[in-house]
Design goal:
Largest sheet: 6 strands, parallel
CATH superfamily of the largest domain: Aldolase class I
Number of strands: 12
CATH architecture of the largest domain: Alpha-Beta Barrel
Strand order of the largest sheet: 6-11-10-9-8-7
Strand content: 15-25%
Number of domains: 2
CATH topology of the largest domain: TIM Barrel
Length: 282
Amino acid sequence: MNALLTLIRMALAEDLGAGDITSDFFIAASHQSQSEIITRQPLVVAGLSVVLTLFAELDPQLLVIPKAKDGERRDIGDPLLSLKGSTRSILAGERAALNFLGRLSGIATWTRAHVDAAQGTGVTILDTRKTTPGWRYLEKEAVRAGGAKNHRMGLYDAMLIKDNHLAALRSDLKLMLPGYLQKARWEYPHLPIELEAETLEQVEFFLTIPAITTILLDNMSLPMLRQAVALRNKRAPAIRLEASGGISLANLRAVAETGVDEISLGALTHTAPWVDLSLELF
């Protein structure tokens, strides 16, 4: 909550500065209004709790009523929330509120499109750490609202051995890596341990290491993904396979149908288009 309040206060401060000179000049301090935030396009909702906190921080006297829930689909013209109270307060928070909702509902909507594309395959869609600095928790929450799941939140809640980690051990990789990972499993018994593979030879080797939970198949072609799945099914069926790299909405279904368990996409957060919203007074 402290991090969220910091972000909200930053958003309000950069917009308001010394004050809303337009509203303060034209609108009396006593003026009251009712308003709604409505959507101008079909979307999946995310970020409502942020906006509730924002208006409570801005003016605790405002009556703010959600008209939807995060994760719900809404169509053109549908209200997402209503506000009643000081007109100056409503207008002071308008842009910051729409920025949060537009960004987060955009991620949820974009994520839902990817989840829908994989429907029926049994594949889990995951995000990555490619998030806006300071917004990670909110953006990953929006991913969940869109129906996908979160990969690790940061460097602290899962172990992912990538190419640069392997490069540090390359001269003694086959000798040293199994022992390191067995030690990691003993020290972190409940932590996911994942290895990144760029070749099928690496996949074959990694499948011999029982300490790991997942192999990340990085930028592999569809034939390579199918071969990796066949190797896994034969040699270590308990190990999960995650495809990542070069995956888009256009080819996601084909990747999902190779038999991998998970697909991770940085695009869920870093290329999600904002949704079109409006705050209307009445």
